[in-house]
Specification:
Lambda_DNA-bd_dom_sf, DNA binding, alpha+beta, 2 domains, about 250 residues, Endonuclease, Chain A, 434 Repressor (Amino-terminal Domain)
């Protein structure tokens, strides 16, 4: 028996016939909803929930459980592959994701030196994508930021991280001049390097005291009903919104 539905009807003075008329069904159908716990079609649930000023997932708990199960399956399906460290990500995958991008390419790193080293023609590739209407957003660490100094110390880099950032930026000096290309500098504590290509995103989390290259990398692909890929895509947006535009000038 669906006690929640029965109680909601009693509290609002809604008779079987009233709910049946609102939902466009027979009163016997409403009886089955109450007495057998049968879950109505979606449009009927919405109509009933509106009449009873209640959440459909409260009135029909199975809907919530079903929704959670679907979300769980979607999240599992979003995980395409796990690499034990960033160096294990095939160069071909980086190139394919970039060349296949149709809408956007987002990169969030401190220095991202490897990004250019594994793709020597990175500026040309990004320029070509931008020319095809792909929005390019690159976000590097600000060499003068305290967060860069802290990460340098934590990873035992001996004061070289700021120099690595400046060196890495030289690859992208001409990009800010192009339509559809933006480069910014951030001062955040970077918990994960992010590389987004449309609905695909490579996530390289940072473990304390370890260089980014030694940490695992997760490949997610956004799916309807999933939350994993969107979780990291939203993180990029938050960092990007507080980052400072870089014009290409030497810093």
């Amino acid at each position: 028996m669906n006690e929640r539905l029965r109680t909601a009807m009693l509290r609002h003075g809604v008779a079987l016939e009233d709910l049946a008329e609102t939902c466009g069904v027979e009163p016997k159908t409403v009886e089955r909803w109450i007495n057998t716990g049968r879950v109505p079609h979606r449009r009927h649930r919405w109509a009933a929930a509106k009449l009873l000023t209640a959440d459909e997932m409260y009135l029909w708990r199975d809907v919530l459980e079903s929704s959670q199960a679907r979300r769980g399956r979607a999240n599992q399906s979003e995980l395409v592959e796990v690499f034990p460290d960033r160096a294990s990500v095939p160069r071909e995958l980086w190139l394919r994701l970039l060349s296949d991008a149709q809408e956007k390419v987002d990169v969030l790193v401190f220095s991202g030196t490897f990004f250019a080293q594994t793709q020597p023609k990175i500026a040309r590739l990004l320029t070509e994508r931008a020319g095809r209407g792909v929005a390019i957003r690159l976000c590097f660490g600000d060499p003068s930021a305290q967060s860069v100094e802290t990460r340098d110390r934590e990873e035992g880099l001996g004061g070289t991280l700021a120099a690595k950032i400046r060196s890495s930026l030289t690859y992208y000096r001409t990009l800010p001049e192009l339509d559809g290309c933006e480069v910014r500098l951030h001062a955040t504590t970077l918990y994960a390097s992010l590389f987004r290509y449309d609905d695909d995103i490579l996530v390289n989390p940072h473990a304390y005291g370890e260089p980014a290259s030694a940490n695992p990398t997760f490949h997610f692909r956004r799916l309807d009903g999933g939350t994993m890929a969107e979780h990291y895509m939203s993180s990029f947006e938050r960092v990007w919104s507080g980052a400072v535009p870089w014009s290409g000038a030497e810093i």
